[in-house]
Amino acid sequence: MVVTFLVLKVTPARLAHNTVTDGTPIPCASINTICATTVLARGENLPAHQCEAEEQPLSTCEDLIGDFLKRVMLWIVAISAVFGNIIALGYRILFERTTLHLTYVLFVTCLGVSDLLMGIYLVIIASVDVVYRGVFIVYEHSWKQSTLCQIAGTFATLSSETSTFFILLITLERFLTIRFPFGEHKISNLVKYIVISFAWCLGFFLSIVPLMYPEMSLYATSETCLAFPLRKSSGTAWIYSVTVFLFLNSILFVVIAIGQFLIFITISQHSSKFKTGSQASARRADNITVALKLSVVVLSNFICWFPVCVMGIRTVVSDYEVTRETYGWIIALVLPINSALNPVFYTLPQVSKSWTDFKRRKSSQFSRSQNP
Description:
It is found in: Membrane. The chain is mainly alpha-helical and 372 residues long. Helix content is 66%, strand content 3%.
């Protein structure tokens, strides 16, 4: 039996029906299996049920995103994340410029930039799926080794890590503001710029480490260029991925959960004091309103990320295995969904409030003009 690799000449028909001479099954998916092959002999077709392959979370021989529903959801999340965060950032820069100096506003703005990077990553993956539709396996290896895949993986890692950092900083800032409403303990102007710079630098460093050490090939291990480890493996790249995405993020989310718990405890302890009409009570009530709105952002990220981290840790320390279907939905929807939801949570209420205030002012001006 003679096997010839026809990397540039394989047609979709050949991908669907590899040919054999003796009925021996030929694997048809995965970078390490024979997929784009033709066996030169009698030219008998291999039945689809005999095609053996290592299943990938999302891709098939034909498509990068093999499931139609996942493909649709990926596009929805990608477009929502890109346009939602652009609109949110534009609104804050154009209409809320006077509040950009506030610590929590800066943290939320940086979170928006981080979410925008995830949206760009999703657009790249969804677009590549369109470009290679029907013949993905022919280009699978070159795609994983391409510069665009490395950039996409860097964006995804940078986004996931910095978003976690900024959620932690938002939690810390809100706790200090509510616990010490008169500013006895707060994040100073100098400190806020230092921690923002540190968060971006650390996220950037963690995302480019796999590029600095080619032997790791972390982003090239997945067709989606995503380094998140939900399958047990070995090697330097896998160890690095487990350390960063599972253990570091899990520790950060535990701290975030503790911070949110302390915030709600503080709110419940001082809720009875808000009934007074003092200026201090009004200030604290405003801070709590902001904290509750931002808590929705924090908790939504926590709800999505923390269970995934737990599944990943179980995979590392035991024989637990995440199913292909679950893995696919985690990659396509669960991990990136907050990038689309966050701008809705932290910007839409503010836009609604601004619009209400605008209509109230217009109504008041109209009333005064009618009654000079």
